[in-house]
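---------- Forwarded message ----------

FYI, see the ABC transporter permease subunit record below. Original note from H. follows.
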Amino acid sequence: MILVILAVLVWCGGWWLNSRLANGSYAATREVQLLVPVIFGLTLVLVWQLLVRGLMVPLVILPAPTDIASAFGANLPKLWEDFLQTFVKGALSGYVIGCSAAFLMAIVMDRSDFLRRGLLPVGNFVAALPIVGTAPILVMWFGFDWHSKAAVVVVMVFFPVLVNTVAGLRETSAMQRDLMQTYAASYWQSFFKLRLPAALPFIFNGLKISTTLALVGAIVAEFFGSPTVGMGFRISTSVGQLALDMVWAEIVVAALAGSMFYGAVALVEKSLTFWHPSQRR
């Protein structure tokens, strides 16, 4: 009971400290904006640790953060192999292929009103298909190695990027396009100097959405067949063995990989769309 009371006090203390920082005179500084989520995360982990120990929650229900850290440290080589198999080979390769194909298809659709009107409804239909239905089919088509996981990722990221890119390419106004025509600009000159820069915020919205879809798709696809390596494989087998600390260790790896992937895309967006109002302070 002492640990439970201590957890409540830690939560209240963290809440009070974050409230003071977020509403103080230095709330707009970059240091405070970084410090607030760090304090919240540390408070959450500490409360989790105290409650699990204080309430004596079984390991198979919810392991303590120290148990997860212990499993993480003891299985680093195995977690690294799973990361390479799922993220680098499956998610990242499928992400690059799917996003590149979507961008090229968006350019083709932009030049053909027939394709744009015909393919966008089909894209919305395919995007609504459940992954648990399409993943087993693609695994049977492309085999049990990373190629089938990359295929699942391609299907998942293709249409979000396609829809956003098509919408972005149509963002410029008629007056802007007419101005380019008065300069005798060709289609590609107008594309690279006007329409592509205007479409970048839309394109990056699709790319950022697809970062999380890619990792989720690769992990879920491994539930339906994979070699004896991979995040999805490790999670499914560890659940069967009631090794929940290992499951949470894989979740930590997935969360870190997904966050860094999203952050990398966001940094590229900030460097290329610095002129956009969304990037101004």
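H. also flagged this: The mean pLDDT is 84.
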